[in-house]
Amino acid sequence: MPIKNNGKLDRSVTPALARVEHLNILRPQKLSLPNGIPVYVFTGLQQDAVRIEWIFNAGKWYEQNTLQSSMAARMMKEGSKAYPSHEFNDLLDFYGASVKAHGGADTASFQLYSLNKHLAPVLQIVEEVVKSPLIDPRDLEIVTQSNREQLKVNMMKPDYLADKAFTESLYGSKHPYGHELELEDYDNLTRESLLSFHKQFYTASNCSIIVSGNINDQVIKLLERFFGGTDWLGAPATVSVHLELDSAERLVKYEAIDGSYQSAIRIGKKLFNKTNTEYQELSVVNTILGGYFGSRLMSNIREDKGYTYGIYSGLNSMRHGGHFIISTEVGVDVRQAAIDEIYTEMSRLQEEPVDSEELDLVRNYMMGRLLNGLDGPFKVAGMYKGLYIYDLDIDYLYSLVDAINTITPERIQELANKYFDPATMHEITVG
Amino acid sequence: MVQYERFTLDNGLRVLVQEDQTTPLAAVNILYDVGSRDETPEKTGFAHLFEHLMFEGSANIENFDEPLQRAGGESNAFTNSDITNYYDILPAANLETAFWLESDRMLSLDINEESLELQRKVVIEEFKENYLNQPYGDVWHLISDLAYKVHPYQWPTIGKNLAHIEAFKLNDVTQFFKKFYVPNNAILVVGGSVTVDQVQSLSEKWFGGIPAGKPINRDIPFEPIQTSKRELEIVADVPGDALYKLYHMGDRNSTNFYVMDLVSDVLAQGNASLLYRRLVKELSLFTEIEAYTTGTMDAGLFIIEAKTVPGVDMKRAEKALDDELARFAETRILERELLKVKNKQESATVFSEVNILHRAMNLAYYELIGDAGLINTEMDKYLAVTEADVLLHSQQVFKPENCSTIYYYANKK
Question: Taking the alpha carbons of B274, B287, A160, A101 in that order, is the dihedral positive or negative?
């Protein structure tokens, strides 16, 4: 029976807390299609839904010309010879399926969302677009025009300009990780360069598939039927080498924009990716500094000073590198004050050990986030994608749990001194 | 089928429980039946500012987020013209922490001059970031103001202007809290790895002692029927010309909503849609075109927005759009076209039910608009739409005198 409240409740007493001690992470079932494509299966969803993600080594890293990766991916949403743009999209709509295509730093991915009951006809439509998209000149023209207009809008936003200047300062504008788009990039884009990029990199030898949702044998059989053949074998992508800008020299740059209401601030430096032995511990240090709503940066710059609507810090990981970045937009009149406070918080991490109450909170918070980020096959599959492209496995997450639970205040201070020294940070402000 | 249980406490708080033992988490969602439509024209933006204040601590709790994070949880909230919705997601073992936190801030807030000043500053930065410091950022202000002359939808949730946000006093906070933040004006949904008994006893324990407030009598004026077309021309520092056409339509519970929601998909959802094919692909008049409904609790808007191809005359492009809409309202659409949008809707519904937080939010909203059971039956309303409905409702909505148009021109320097 429910307990009736008779006014004697003591609200000043915090309810007892349970600790998330360990995680029980869904591991992938690993299969291979007859042509060798590795398939990672995460099943157990109650709903009758499936997500299939094809991942290719076809990110910006492999480009010869800018835009090849993102546009080759984008044009897969515009159909194939048998199902040109209108028919392709019309049929997907008809079956209530949807697709997403994305060209990232290292990989490109094509995602399909479908109900199980329509998967067979949907995969038949999707097969050709994955293997040989049409890239119709008129469709390309339309997509290019729309992207150019969007880019013009972005070029008027201080946050976009600050991001662009920041990544360029780290890697150099010629480097695949450092180049952010310019309008001229679209002038040099040709259909032929997209077709040849697709032909070279979107092959079975260069592909992995992550399947999640409500997965039965039928789903695997369909994948074998449509994607398991040797008709699109190709060759694995060869690793290219790109020279990075030597960004050891600290760059501090302020670009004013007349009439701007806010300034976009980016502070950070080049670091390493998640395979580095110190990455997991550093991610705890980052969380304390600016990785969650209760972080030191948010508490100080938003919740104490009211300079901004939000401020975050993060560790960005790529296959061949990584960096640390703090991002915020603040009122123009408090620009310098905000920058000063950011450095104050970094110095404080270097100088004072974190007290146990704060560290305890961050531990619990990070464990709760992990629990949430691994809730259900779709989310685990997403998390897994972020591991396997670095040749990491689910075990990585268990060692992250260890790092979260065992890092000491002394170690945090040591890492802050090693990596978060204000004197080594690039600082870009726009607006 | 989403299974749930529902009960009401003596103080009027409605509670829904959605058990799902496959997740280790619990989602706690509290919807307050208050939005920017409950504001007065001289004091706009307050419902949203108030949402920020709800995180500034309550009678027995100094800071809302800290204990929740310590419990491994996270929270956030949003405000729109109709509702203010708060949610927490945390390990199910710590469910009671969310009850403690949410009930304390419903019981009594702890707001002083300092916290009001601080969140005022934060909201002003939010206003600048989203509405002033980017191209077309003011368009929601223009849309609301042109389409509504009487109804409070004439201002956006962020508020008419910065001056309104600068002017709020502590007294406004107290009054607003007393009137709207009462159990009889709220809906609590708890989802995830919980049981009905557990939620029932926790609800009684933490919320049961909070006194009910006075019943809220809303006196929101009806927007009169628009009888002649309205136009607004804007010239601003934006990269290209944009066209916005706003048509009055029915409220979220009306048949008109379900029909026009499907119509927006037929017209402009994706590359296979009618307007994309004709106006973007064949005629090269627009670079992109979108159509959507505002889906508000009082009569809403059907909005079409499009960006013209550089060099194309906006009025010429608009004429072609008008012709397409007129033709659409005269011709029966194909059975297959209707089946297609219904299939899309079905799929969207299934995918939206994967996440426990989405389920909890949806349940709270459906309960608010009259029937939590809509989470399972709303699809039937879409399935019931016929070709004849599409024809009839399109004719009602796409009338020239029912339309307001914004011509947003790029400043040619």
Answer: positive
Q: Concatenate the DSSP letters of all residues of A101-140 into one string.
A: EEE-SS-EEEEEEEEGGGHHHHHHHHHHHHH-B---HHHH
B-chain residues within 8 Å CB-CB of A361? 66, 69-70
Selection from A323, A275, A355 nearest residue A420 by Cα:
A323
Task: Say yes or no for a CB contact (<8 Å) between A113 and B73.
Answer: no
Nearest by CB to B70, which of A3, A17, A85? A17
Whether A262 has its CB under 8 Å from any CB of chain B: the answer is: yes
Structure tokens given for B121: 């500053």
Instruction: Identify which of A9, A98, A113 has the shortest CB distance to residue B209.
Output: A9
Q: Which of B210, B167, B187, B184 is nearest to B39 (CA)?
A: B167
| CA separation, residue A152 to residues A141, A149, A267, A338, B241 (Å) | 16, 5, 25, 28, 12
Spatial CA neighbour of B101 closest among A104, A71, A15, A96 = A15
Is A156–B288 a contact, with Cβ atoms under 8 angstroms apart?
A: no
Q: What does each of the 413 residues of chain B score in pLDDT, given as a tens digit?
A: 899 999 999 999 999 999 999 999 999 999 999 999 999 999 999 999 999 999 999 999 999 999 999 999 999 999 999 999 999 999 999 999 999 999 999 999 888 999 999 999 999 999 998 999 889 999 999 999 999 999 999 999 999 999 999 999 999 999 999 999 999 999 999 999 999 999 999 999 999 999 999 999 999 999 999 999 999 999 999 999 999 999 999 999 999 999 999 999 999 999 999 999 999 999 999 999 999 999 999 999 999 999 999 999 999 999 999 999 999 999 888 889 999 999 999 999 999 999 999 999 999 999 999 999 999 999 999 999 999 999 999 999 999 999 999 999 999 86
User: Which residues in chain A are closer than 8 Å to B203, comparing Cβ atoms?
Assistant: 2
CB-closest option in B209, B240, B272 to A89? B272
In the DSSP assignment, the letter for residue B128 is I
Q: Which residue type occupies B412? A: K
Burial of A38 (0-12, 13-18, 19+ CB in 10 A): middle
CA distances from residue A198 to A135, A192, A430, B36, B293 in whole angstroms, order as listed: 10, 10, 37, 50, 38
Domains of chain A (ranges; CATH) run 29-141+183-227 (3.30.830.10), 252-430 (3.30.830.10)
| pLDDT for residue A242 | 82
How far is the C-alpha of A363 from the C-alpha of B315, rounded, in Å? 59
User: What is the set of domains in chain B, with CATH numbers?
Assistant: 5-207 (3.30.830.10), 230-410 (3.30.830.10)
How far B133 CA sits from the closest chain A CA (Å)? 6
Distance, in Å, from the CA atom of B285 to the CA atom of B314, rounded to the nearest integer, reads 9
CA distance B210 to B186: 12
Which residues touch B91 (CB under 8 Å, ≥6 apart)? A18, A20, A368, A371, B24, B25, B26, B71, B72, B73
Instruction: Residue A292: list chain B partners with CB under 8 A.
Output: 69, 74
Alpha-carbon distance of A172 to A167, in angstroms, equals: 7
Please report the pLDDT score of residue B413 as a whole number: 60
> What is the distance between the alpha carbons of residues B360 and B145, in angstroms, rounded to a whole number?
33
Chain A positions touching B74 (Cβ under 8 A) are: 292-293, 365, 368-369, 372
Chain A residues whose beta carbon lies within 8 Å of the beta carbon of residue B86: none
**B10 φ/ψ angles, rounded to the nearest 5 degrees:** -60, -30
Cβ atoms of B206 and B100 within 8 Å: the answer is yes
pLDDT (0 to 100) of residue B335: 87
Q: What is the reported pTM? A: 0.94
**How many residue pairs bridge chain A and chain B with CB atoms within 8 Å of each other?**
214
Nearest CA among B339, B337, B340, B333 for reference residue B390: B333
